[in-house]
Amino acid sequence: LNAAPERAPRQQIRFLPSPAPGGGGAVELVAASVPVLADHPLVRGPRFRKLKIGAGHRLDVKASGVFVLGIGHGNKLLTDLYNCHLTKVYTVGGLFGKATDDFSDTGNLIEKTTFDHITREKLERILAVIQGTNQKALLMYSNIDMKTQEAYELAVKGLIRPMGKSPPIITAIRCLQFALPEFQLEIHCLHETQQYLRKVVHEIGLELKSSAVCTQVRRTRDGVFTVDDALPRTQWNLQNVQEAIRNCQLKVETELEKTLA
Amino acid sequence: VAMAGLARRLLCRGFCVPARPPSTRQLREADEAAPVFQYAGKAARRKDRVFVWGFSYSGALGIPSFVKPDAGWKKPRRIQPTPYRLETEDKISSAACGYGFTLLASNTRDITKVWGMGLNKDSQLGFQRSRRDQTKGYEYVLEPSPIPLPLEKPQQTRVLQVSCGRAHSLVLTDSEGVFTMGNNSYGQCGRKVVEDEIYSGSHLIHQLKEFDSRVVQVVCGQDHSLFRTKKGSVYACGWGADGQTGLGHYNITSVPTKLNGDIAGVNIIQVSSYGDCCLAVSDEGDVFGWGNSEYLQLASVTETTQVNVPRHLPFKIGKVKEAACGGTGNIVLTEEGNVFVWGYGILGKGPNLTETAEPEMIPPSLFGWSDFSPDTRVAHVRCGLSQFAALTNRGELFVWGKNLRGCLGTGRMEDQYFPWRVTVPGEVVDVACGVDHMVSMVRSFT
Questions:
Q1: Which family does it belong to (chain A) (predicted)?
Q2: Averaged over B58-76, what is the pLDDT?
Q3: Which of A41, A188, A239, B386 is least surrounded by CB atoms within 10 angstroms?
C-alpha cells in the first residue's frame, strides 16, 4: 500500500523575497506557491503503518466459508450490517449412526446406533417440522403486535424478522444430498453459532430414532456476500482486495438503504 | 504443577502416565469396539394418535383429570391451550366436535366402534348408564365412553363417519344406514317430533335407511341434518326457519327429504354446514349455498337474509375442491390449492377485513409456501363456529379466527387474525373443529 503513488503534497502560499525586476538591491515580496515541508515523505514517513481490520459474524475453528472483514473506515459499516439482521446460508454435512459429546465427528464417542430404517422421506418430514416451528419463533421474536394490519402485510411478504436480540432461528432448511449414512443440508439461519448447527444435526438424528454427528459446516452466504465474492487465503494481495471492495460496495449500500430506511 | 500429594508421588515414581488427547488410532479402536444400539426395529411403524385442546369443563376433551383432579398436586384445568394427547385404545378414523361434546369413531369390526364424551343432557351420546344409580344416565361424560349402537350385525358393520350438531349427533355406517340420537325438538334426528319429549337419559337411537342410494356423508348443522347419497343428491331434515333445510319452506321437517333448486340433477361431492348456512360442492367445481345469509354468506346472489332453496354461487375462483361452513364465515379450497374466505368475522386477512360478500384469497405464503418449498399447498379446510383450520400437504395445521376459550390451540388466548401454525408433535391427518374445542388425528413422524 505504501508503495502506491501518494497524493501530492499540500501547497501553501508564502511570500518569498526575490530580487526586484528592475536592478538595484531592492527586495520585493512576491507571492509563490511552495510545497509545505511537513508533507514531504522524508519528513512524514510512510503513510500507512497500521490497518484497522474488524470481523463480521463469528466463524468457528472447525467451520469454513465466507468470513466478512471490514478494513479501516469500513468498520463503521460492520455495525450497520449487523443491525440489518440478514440471513446466513450454511451447507452442513452429517453422518448417521454415531453420537459424540461435542456433536462433531472428532469428539469422544458416546453411542453408536443403527440407521437402516431412515429414509429420505422421514428426513424431509422432520425438516419440514423444524422449519415450521422456527417460522413460528420468527414471528414471535419479531416483537410485532399480531393484531395489526401491518403485521399481516409483513407476514404475507415474508419480511417479518427479529430486529433485536433473539435465540438462533432457522428460516429455511432443506436436504441437498442423502446417501446413507451421510447427508447434506442447506440451512438459512439468523443469530446462530456453528455449535448450534451441530446441535441441530444431533437433534435430527435423535428424532429419527438414531443418532447423527456433524462432519462439515461451511458458510456459503453471509448477508449479501457469497462464495463468489470471497477471496481464498492464497489471493490475499492488494489488487484483489481492492477489486473485491469495489465489487461489493454497491450491493452493501443498496442493502443498507433498503433495510434501515 | 498443582496436584494432590498422592497423584504427584505416583507420577514422579512413574506408576501412572498423564492422559493425552486420544490419537486417531485410539479413536478408531474405541469406535469399533463400541456396542451398537437399535432404537427402531423392523416392525417400527408410525403411530396414530389423537390430540385435543380447548375448553375442558364440559368434558369434551375426554380427560377427566382436567375436571376432577385425581391426584393432590393436580389442579382443575379449565382450558387446555396447546394440543394434549388423548390416549385411545383403537385407531380413530373419524372425529366430530359438537357444541360441548365430541364423538370419536373407529373403523374396526369390534363391538364398540364409537366413543363419546362431553355434554349428554339431550342424550346426544346415547344412554350412558350411571354407576351410582342404574336407572339414570350421566349428564356429563368426562372420558371417552362407548356408545351402544343397535346394529343388526355388530361384528360386520363398520362406522364410516360421525357428525355432531348443537344437541344431536349422526353416525354413518357402511351397510346399516344412519343412526341418529339426541335432541329431536325440530325433527333433526329424522323422526317425528314428540311433544314434551324428555331427551335426557333417553335410550332411543333412531335408524334411517330410506334414501335413493347409500348415504356417503352426514353433516350436522346447528339444529338440522344433511345427508349426501352416492348418487349425488342431498337430503335434509330439522329446523328450517333460516331456510337451512333448503326445501323451499321455512318450517320444521322431521323426515329426510330430497333437496331441489339449483342442485337438482347435479352430482354433489361434498356438503358442509355447522351453523345455519349450508354449502355444497359439485363434481364440476361449482358451489351451491342455502340457509342463513345475515352475514353476507350468500349476498353474491341475493339480498334476502334467508335462502330456502339451494342457489348456485357464481364465483370466478376456479374449480372448487372442498368447502366448509362456519357460523358466520365460509371457506373454500380450489383445485390449485388456493384458499378463499368470505362472510363476517375474523376472516384471516388481518384485522381490517371483517366482512365481505365476494371470496377473498389468502396468500399461500402464510401457509408455508416459499421459494424453498414451492410444493406446499393446502390439502383440506375445516370450519368451527367462529374459527377456521387448514391442513397442508406437509401435515401442518394452520388456524385462525376467534380464540374462544383457547380453542385455536396456539397457546395464547388472543384472537388470531391470520393463519398461525399450531405446534403438534406429528403429521396432522385430520382435524375437527367445534365451538370451543378441537380434536385432531395425528400420525407420529417416524
A1: Belongs to the pseudouridine synthase TruB family.
A2: 91
A3: A239
